[in-house]
Design a protein that fits this description.
alpha+beta, OB fold (Dihydrolipoamide Acetyltransferase, E2P), Chloramphenicol Acetyltransferase, 3 domains, 7-stranded mixed beta sheet, 4-stranded antiparallel beta sheet, 12 helices
């Protein structure tokens, strides 16, 4: 018997433990090399763990186990041969029957590119298919060597959705009115990490919050005037986030204390501006940073935020994409929040909270006018940032947003 031990790999320098969130292959099942056998959930992301050899899978750890880096997860008995009919060439032969009507030459070409990748989903595709209950056997891969891509999985999910109503399953999960039922679920590792860090930020920082309001009438008028040309040139809309990030970046460069952080008895001042953007996902809040905001254009910022948000909601953010950040911006306004006190994202020293835009009567040159107004909140660590510094920073952001041409001209 030849046994290969599968151990938790080194995932990142800041990650010492993971949770085995689910097995993708059954105990005793034959697996092929590089085939995902389970999923790990770390503090920052969900990762698939591929088999290091072909053979019979033997469980060692159980689902929901917390495992340290290097811990034994499973064993693979490489002396066990593949069961009859499961050889690699068989999969592409089955796949070849589907395209016969529209591409008669496809069955001839299939064996030339046959490999274990044929009919096997990428990690992003596998996640979509599992969550939607789609069988890989019913999906034709268009990737390299017939691999199922994320786009293939999305098409497979949306195609049957219209034809197969799901009224019965939904009705079965609706609780009976008046029933006094409850359920207990284990917190995900990400949720536990979020909880720990939020409590740490409250307990270990001298956190205060200062507020101001900003009149967005000129900003909104400018966006409306140039939006069509901006989209035509850059292929992406000019949103509020790039404008707010750029305003914060300019203010942070002129007030480095807000862009700093405490490390023991020292304060680290950053010459660059990496702004973390809070993104809500089904599994929790993530804050990947847009790096070097000070040197990026509005279009570059918008494109990067779009990519990060897409990856965050798919659960495909890499650890490198999650690292860093010298300041954070969170937008509770997308959920209708009028005002809030955001919690600092440690080890950073400040976070800006955006809120919903409301038309309100304000005094303008002695007259009452209706203007689109937004509350801004800056939570900051008073150990690093003085009260006057926090107020001045917020005023600088406000002035740039109320006169967006100074923002565009970097004044």
């Amino acid at each position: 018997m030849s046994i290969v031990e599968m151990k938790v790999p080194v995932i990142g320098e800041s990650i010492s433990e993971v949770t085995l969130s689910q097995w993708l292959k059954a105990d005793g099942e034959y697996v092929k090399i590089d085939e995902p056998i389970c999923e790990f959930e770390s503090d920052k992301a969900t990762l698939e763990f591929p088999a290091e050899a072909s053979g019979k899978l033997i469980y060692v750890a159980a689902e929901e186990d917390d495992l340290e880096i290097g811990a034994l997860v499973a064993k693979i008995d490489t002396s066990v041969a593949a069961p009859a009919g499961s050889e690699t060439p068989a999969a592409p032969a089955a796949k070849a029957e589907a395209p016969k009507v529209e591409a008669p030459s496809a069955p001839v070409a299939a064996p030339a590119t046959a490999s274990y990748a044929t009919g096997h989903p990428s990690p992003a595709a596998a996640k979509i298919m599992r969550e939607s209950g789609v069988d890989a056997a019913n999906v034709t891969g268009t990737g390299v060597d017939g691999r199922i891509t994320k786009e293939d999985a999305q098409k497979a999910v949306t195609a049957p959705a219209a034809a197969a109503p799901k009224a019965t399953p939904v009705a079965a999960t609706v609780p009976v009115a008046g029933a006094r039922t409850s359920r207990r679920e284990k917190m995900s590792r990400m949720r536990r990490t979020i909880a720990t860090r939020l409590v740490s930020a409250k307990n270990n920082t001298a956190m205060l919050t200062t507020f101001n309001e900003v009149d967005l009438s000129q900003l909104m008028a400018m966006r409306k005037k140039y939006q069509e040309k901006f989209v035509e040139k850059n292929g992406v809309k000019l949103g509020f986030m790039s404008l707010f990030l750029k305003a914060c970046s300019n203010a942070l460069q002129s007030m480095p204390a807000v862009n700093a952080q405490i490390d023991g008895n020292e304060i680290i001042y950053h010459d660059f501006v990496d702004i973390s953007v809070a993104i809500s996902t089904p599994t929790g809040l993530v804050v990947p940073p847009v790096k070097n905001v000070e040197s990026k254009s509005f279009a570059e910022i918008e494109k990067e935020i779009k990519v990060l948000a897409g990856k965050a909601r798919e659960g495909s953010l890499t650890l490198d994409e999650m690292k860093g950040g010298t300041f954070t911006v969170t937008n509770g306004g997308v959920f209708g929040s009028l005002v809030s006190t955001p919690i600092i994202n440690e080890p950073q020293s400040a976070i800006l909270g955006m809120h919903t835009i409301k038309e309100r009567p304000i005094a303008v040159d002695g007259k009452v006018e209706i203007r689109p107004m937004m509350w801004l909140a800056l939570s900051y660590d008073h150990r690093v940032i003085d009260g006057s510094t926090s107020v001045t920073f917020l005023v600088k952001v406000k002035e740039q947003l109320e006169d967006p041409y100074t923002l565009m001209m970097d004044l």
